[in-house]
Design a protein that fits this description.
Elements lengths: L1 H10 L6 H6 L3 H10 L3 H10 L18 H8 L2 H9 L16 H8 L2 H10 L14 H8 L2 H10 L4 H4 L10 H7 L3 H9 L21 H59 L2
Pfam families: Ank_2
Protein name: Protein fem-1 homolog B
Pathway: Protein modification; protein ubiquitination
Length: 275
């Protein structure tokens, strides 16, 4: 009987409590899981206990050293992004991953409108940051076909939209090249309206039209380019006419008074000196 009792006890050992399994999870992993779950309260609690995990770069093989803000921005979790920025995540400058990408680039690539809007308001200079390929958030949004994101970036970009849409990466591709190669028609219209150069050639001397994703996209882009070139002289003519209309009467009136004064002076001189 005692031998049988021993066998029974060895065959049914006591299982460890479930709580001990979860207690062994590293806090850096727990906070990333909380970000995936969009649990901002749990993120706050973990950072309160472990403030050194504010950035928490992902050192895994496929993590690219993405910080907490990179992860939350790529997932479109606005409340967590707001908390991290207010906690000082970007206090010393925008966090960069191994590809030198900012959180704004990842949000623009994924088309998360609210996150892009918030990050642009937080610091508009992040829009002009480039990655290792020379691309910025505008190019990422254009490549993904996120027209609303492109419009937000054009609204907040320092220096105005005209310069932003003419920037090129290390291969000479502009935002218009990326939009054309992926067939994003709405983005093409937005970029051309902002002043994009449709004749700009990359290092292989290819224009955005040459990268058209389909015949229909090529026809549409050529029509937009022709329409833009037709409207440009009309706008210049109207602006010149309006300027002349504003300046003309004032200048003419002043010069007319001068001419009348000069003629009067001449007549007086003649009448006084010629008998």
């Amino acid at each position: 009987m005692s031998i049988q009792a021993k066998i029974v006890r060895t065959q049914s050992p006591r299982a460890p409590p479930a709580r001990s399994c979860y207690a062994r999870i590293d806090p850096s992993i727990r906070i990333r899981r909380a970000i995936y779950a969009n649990d901002v309260l749990l993120v706050k609690r973990i950072l309160k206990s472990h403030p050194h995990l504010l950035h928490n770069p992902d050192v895994s093989h496929t993590g690219l050293s993405n910080s907490n803000l990179h992860l939350s921005a790529s997932l479109g979790h606005l409340s967590i992004c707001q908390f991290l920025v207010e906690a000082g995540h970007e206090q010393t400058g925008p966090a960069l991953n191994e590809n030198h990408e900012t959180a704004l680039m990842l949000a623009a690539r994924a088309g998360h409108i609210e996150v892009v809007h918030y990050l642009c308001q937080a610091d508009p200079s992040w829009i002009l940051r480039r990655d290792v390929h020379g691309r910025d958030a505008m190019m990422e949004a254009s490549r993904g076909g996120h027209d609303t994101v492109v419009q937000i970036l054009l609204t907040y970009v320092p220096g105005g939209p005209g310069q932003a849409v003419r920037r090129a990466d290390h291969e000479g591709n502009t935002a218009l090249h990326f939009a054309s190669s992926n067939g994003h028609l709405l983005v093409l219209r937005t970029l051309l309206a902002a002043g994009a150069d449709a004749d700009y050639e990359n290092i292989w001397r290819w224009t955005p039209v040459a990268y058209s994703a389909s015949v229909q996209a090529e026809v549409y882009l050529k029509g937009l380019i022709a329409q833009t070139k037709t409207q440009a002289p009309v706008r210049k003519t109207k602006s010149n006419m309006s300027k002349e209309a504003m300046k003309g009467p004032q200048t003419g009136g002043v010069s007319g008074l001068r001419l009348v004064q000069e003629e009067d002076d001449t007549d007086d001189w003649v009448s006084r000196n010629i008998p």
